[in-house]
From TrEMBL:
PANTHER family: DIAMINOPIMELATE EPIMERASE (PTHR31689:SF0), DIAMINOPIMELATE EPIMERASE, CHLOROPLASTIC (PTHR31689)
Subunit record text: Homodimer.
Lineage of source species: Bacteria, Pseudomonadati, Planctomycetota, Planctomycetia, Pirellulales
GO-annotated biological processes: lysine biosynthetic process via diaminopimelate
SUPFAM superfamilies attached to this UniProt entry: Diaminopimelate epimerase-like
Protein family membership: Belongs to the diaminopimelate epimerase family.
Residues involved in substrate binding: 11, 63, 73-74, 161, 194, 212-213, 222-223
Gene: dapF
Name under which the protein is recorded: Diaminopimelate epimerase
UniProt subcellular location: Cytoplasm
Top-rank taxon: Bacteria
Record function comment: Catalyzes the stereoinversion of LL-2,6-diaminopimelate (L,L-DAP) to meso-diaminopimelate (meso-DAP), a precursor of L-lysine and an essential component of the bacterial peptidoglycan.
One GO cellular component, as annotated: cytosol
Length: 283
């Protein structure tokens, strides 16, 4: 199976151009195999770029554990870059079909190749039960949850996929690597959840670490950064336009008041292409 390795500020995936490739097995089976950083290619998951009836292309995203997600913000910027650079649709404004609907992306080129991509991530979903959470409130802001005998105030947002945002003094390893996975799988979130630990630097600047549903800690999470932008406004901690410093790089975000959409701008990088052999014995 031919693949292309790409990353969006360090959130790296194995991409397959399904306009040209047939998958040798189900994506839920392939994702954990190719994501393995020792026995496979290495990545946070698998992303398929497929034909679409309603857009220039469709993105299907699978986490490293094989679970499919509705949306992937860093992944969508890389899909846009791939579609443009590889002439699937040579347009600087692309429409891409995702589990969160058809989203519009704006490409900035350099030497004829896509470099920066601005994504309209659509409108956040704030009703507790639609995120989904077990909470009835709309929005879910500063909601107390108990994890491992500790109490946390969480603000929950869906960008097509569920996010649990926690503002902290310091996003420590204890919080991200011990509390993160317990929140991911807690009974508060029927479909599990992505967890963002956020340090507020100023009203328009934050630092974020992320424990991702199905992939563990990643260097960046685009839908998570979008959820953080919304949660910052809902809790009165940040303005509608912020700069987010993630471990792998920076994202610019805005929750636009006029159209209620979140806009996210960041890089997308193609690292290498290759040929992957399906292991003889599937686990
Ligand atoms: N783990 C996420 C999908 C990837 C999201 C993240 N990598 C992004 O850039 O938005 C989920 O299960 O909802």
């Amino acid at each position: 199976m031919r693949f292309t390795k790409m990353h969006g500020i360090g959130n790296d995936y194995v991409y397959v151009n399904c306009f040209a490739e047939q998958l040798p097995a189900a994506p839920e089976t392939i994702a954990p195999l190719v994501s393995d950083r020792h026995f496979g290619i290495g990545g946070d998951g698998l992303i398929l770029i497929t034909p679409s009836e309603v857009a220039d292309a469709r993105m299907r995203m699978f986490n490293a554990d094989g679970s499919e997600s509705e949306m992937c913000g860093n992944g969508l910027r890389c899909v846009a870059k791939y579609v443009f650079d590889h002439d699937i649709a040579k347009k600087e404004t692309l429409k891409l079909e995702t589990g969160a609907g058809v989203l519009t992306v704006q490409i900035e080129t350099e030497n004829g190749l896509a470099r920066q991509v601005r994504v309209n991530m659509g409108q956040p979903i704030l009703e507790g039960k639609k995120i989904p959470t077990i909470f009835d409130s709309n929005p879910v802001v500063n909601q107390k949850i108990e994890i491992a005998g500790q109490s946390f105030d969480v603000t929950c947002v869906s960008m097509g996929n569920p996010h649990c945002v926690i503002f902290v003094e310091k996003a420590t390893d204890e919080l991200v690597l011990k509390i993160g996975p317990q929140i991911e799988r807690s009974t508060y979130f029927p479909s599990r959840v992505n967890v963002e630990f956020v340090e507020v630097v100023s009203p328009n600047e934050v630092r974020q670490r992320t424990w991702e549903r199905g992939s563990g800690e990643t260097l960046a999470c685009g839908t998570g950064a979008s959820a953080v932008c919304v949660a910052g406004v809902l809790t009165g901690r940040t303005k509608r336009k912020i700069l987010n410093h993630l471990l792998g790089g920076d994202l610019q975000l805005e929750w636009n008041e006029a159209d209620n959409c979140v806009y996210k701008t960041g890089g997308a990088t193609e690292v290498f292409t290759g040929e992957w052999m399906l292991p003889a014995l599937l686990p």
